[in-house]
Hints:
This protein is of the alpha+beta class and 730 residues long. The chain contains 12 helices and 38 strands. 19% of the residues lie in helices and 31% in strands. The strands form 7 sheets. Strands 6, 7, 8, 9, 11, 12, 14, 15, 19 and 20 form a 10-stranded antiparallel sheet that branches. An 8-stranded parallel barrel has the order 21-22-23-26-27-28-29-30, surrounded by 5 helices. α6 packs parallel to α7 and α9 runs parallel beside α10 (589-596).
Amino acid sequence: xxxxxxxxxxxxxxxxxxxxxxxxxxxxxxxxxxxxxxxxxxxxxxxxxxxxxxxxxxxxxxxxxxxxxxxxxxxxxxxxxxxxxxxxxxxxxxxxxxxxxxxxxxxxxxxxxxxxxxxxxxxxxxxxxxxxxxxxxxxxxxxxxxxxxxxxxxxxxxxxxxxxxxxxxxxxxxxxxxxxxxxxxxxxxxxxxxxxxxxxxxxxxxxxxxxxxxxxxxxxxxxxxxxxxxxxxxxxxxxxxxxxxxxxxxxxxxxxxxxxxxxxxxxxxxxxxxxxxxxxxxxxxxxxxxxxxxxxxxxxxxxxxxxxxxxxxxxxxxxxxxxxxxxxxxxxxxxxxxxxxxxxxxxxxxxxxxxxxxxxxxxxxxxxxxxxxxxxxxxxxxxxxxxxxxxxxxxxxxxxxxxxxxxxxxxxxxxxxxxxxxxxxxxxxxxxxxxxxxxxxxxxxxxxxxxxxxxxxxxxxxxxxxxxxxxxxxxxxxxxxxxxxxxxxxxxxxxxxxxxxxxxxxxxxxxxxxxxxxxxxxxxxxxxxxxxxxxxxxxxxxxxxxxxxxxxxxxxxxxxxxxxxxxxxxxxxxxxxxxxxxxxxxxxxxxxxxxxxxxxxxxxxxxxxxxxxxxxxxxxxxxxxxxxxxxxxxxxxxxxxxxxxxxxxxxxxxxxxxxxxxxxxxxxxxxxxxxxxxxxxxxxxxxxxxxxxxxxxxxxxxxxxxxxxxxxxxxxxxxxxxxxxxxxxx
Length: 730
């Protein structure tokens, strides 16, 4: 069993095939962290901890003057009774104080994994896949219990953590902070890495050394955000793509979050992630329970690449759900950049005919089909078809497209409301707002208050009617602004700081209902592109629109950074027009295709106006994508050259049995009189023979990995190559 309990030593040992995580209950009270890393056998766990009296570190135990919570490497620390570092939680008691003392009470070990109430989380399909430890701590004075949950997967180097707070006392308490996990690591000579950016420039990699004090990334925007993804990693100094220790944490949550890394004077590193405590309070009444989101903790001794492939497998197979989880996605056309708001039923039909001839499988009608939506100034909330544009309704255009042999999809932005809408005129209190304060607009819209059950029920029933009104097989769910004036007309004054989290709980309830009712619809999430690309949304919608920036060059960095955590099958990627609508750059159609083919391929341009030569190229690349998309969607990814380090980018995908591989190489800017270059591959079987692109030449796997694949000399900007690799049968 992957969780062992040594009662004599008071030690828990959680382990998978290549990872160990060890906890000790010190002095019978305090969960202390002993080790997290490569799988080990431990004969003397008590020898791992050493104590020494430190000046200005108070002694918590009178019988042990060397012991102090200030220097104990803890699993879930508090503030105020000896530990001066940043706490994992904080409660306010009825007397106004925030001093607590949660100590060990009991534990439970069981096979399998329990779902979290009202929140997305990783799951198991069979109890034999994982084992769970629940450590219960109690503050007897407050009458509050705390359950620290740890699940370790047997075949993945993954531990999931979450916390629930149970109030069995007699007076209300306020929760001011409650992180999903915290761990104190025994060294500080790390680099830390996170994914930063902004709209159109999401998930760029930033790596820098840890330093003393607190380093933080966070979002207070009401969404996980374009600016910081809810993920952070610690890396050994020598760690790269293929080697070195890497510790990743990712939060299964789509709202405000915070990740902290704190280095103390004794070189201990405290790592924590959870709901952002800024502007957060939760009133906990007797008999109530608060549940944190779940953190996904991954250890890799094989560098960033090993961490990524573990996250990819976990997210693809045990976070994403539904019938599309294990299916390659249809090649789609999206109408947005081709028509924006200005379309008619006739020109949509013309585009659909052109798309079918090229091999498009799914036609998606984007913004502008409802209400009086001729621009972004009105009609959000009025989910009724605009009969001037679509005289035969959604069903008319969907039936036409279906007869052409394609599926039909539609865009919605349900979480928003336009002030110029019937919904807002009838229900002005349904948006997030604070009485007496202005209502700040962004993109001419306000945010509906999803913390309200009546608003959620309205959306569930309204969207149910829309999705039943036509043969809809795909929905793009957008969310195009962050939250301001975060308040709810339905919440009492003492609960106003719960609004942002209750919004997320409301959103998750809506998504759960709709995905249950429409299991055959492929839902894609979007928030101005990648503003909510997180495991929480993937639980309901197995892919995300990666970025509104469709420029092929910019997409190299965006897709490369995204791949640190998220697999290719979760990324939407479109071929768009040139000059690009976001940056004005002109790149060859072939490169635009090759970049989009490294994820879920789509098109977002005037395909009916392409030249005959361009149509031939697109049709050819669609045929190639049909040959390779199983490998791209379900294979192991290896990043070979980083766009953050030069003008060359390369990555490859290898299917599970190492029979097929696909390699993408991109040259951004050409170099005069360039040297010859060989691209070293990864993930192949060393002693097996492989053929590249149906050439007569064959290579050993180790030949391609150690010597490399010879690339042609390139004398032009924005060049790209796709290599299909096939193992020879014996």
